């Protein structure tokens, strides 16, 4: 597996499978805007020239925010999410971010466990954050 910065060509290569093979958190159009935003960096994991996961962050001053991390459904549980998150944490360090924050649906156990494994701490809750119904945990990693 190799991890590289996501390009518009990579996004085009995923366009038809984004909803079916990944998750429908983010649409093609929003991801395209994200790639054009200078405060945002996206990375992809590739196996045999095929995208198997992607993740992105924004950095504003010394705070990094995780925008998204998704592994292809058929490739989960093989360490790809961990490698993507580790790469973003290294990037935070390179870009002199002091802390790394994210929101996660309180029902999303795989993601919460992933973040805990990499040192994120649950610091609070945003009530009815998703579709005005489900709560989100705010998780932050300080030891970057
Ligand atoms: C969350 C997600 C990115 C994890 O990716 P993954 O490649 O399956 O994760 P990994 O195989 O690297 O696992 C790393 C750690 O995550 C946790 N984890 C992953 N899947 C898990 C599961 N089904 N149940 C519990 N913990 C899980 C574990 O702590 C695991 O470490 P371990 O293997 O030492 O136990 C993946 O499940 C996914 O794409 N989910 C849908 C999108 C999403 O919810 N993204 C987060 C919000 S934007």
Report a brief summary of the structure.
The chain is an alpha+beta fold. It has helices spanning 8-14, 18-21, 28-36, 80-94, 109-117, and strands spanning 2-5, 40-47, 50-60, 63-71, 99-105, 121-130, 134-141.
Tell me the number of helical segments per DSSP (H or I, 4 or more residues long): 5
Give the proportion of residues in helices: 25-40%
Bound molecules: coenzyme A
Structural class: alpha+beta
Radius of gyration: 15 Å
Output the strand order for the largest sheet. 1-2-3-4-5-7-6
Give the integer mean of the pLDDT values. 94
| DSSP strand content | 35-45%
Alpha-carbon distance between the two ends: 24 Å
| Run of helices and strands | EHHHEEEHEHEE
How many strands in all?
Answer: 7
Give the overall form: globular
CATH superfamily: Gcn5-related N-acetyltransferase (GNAT)
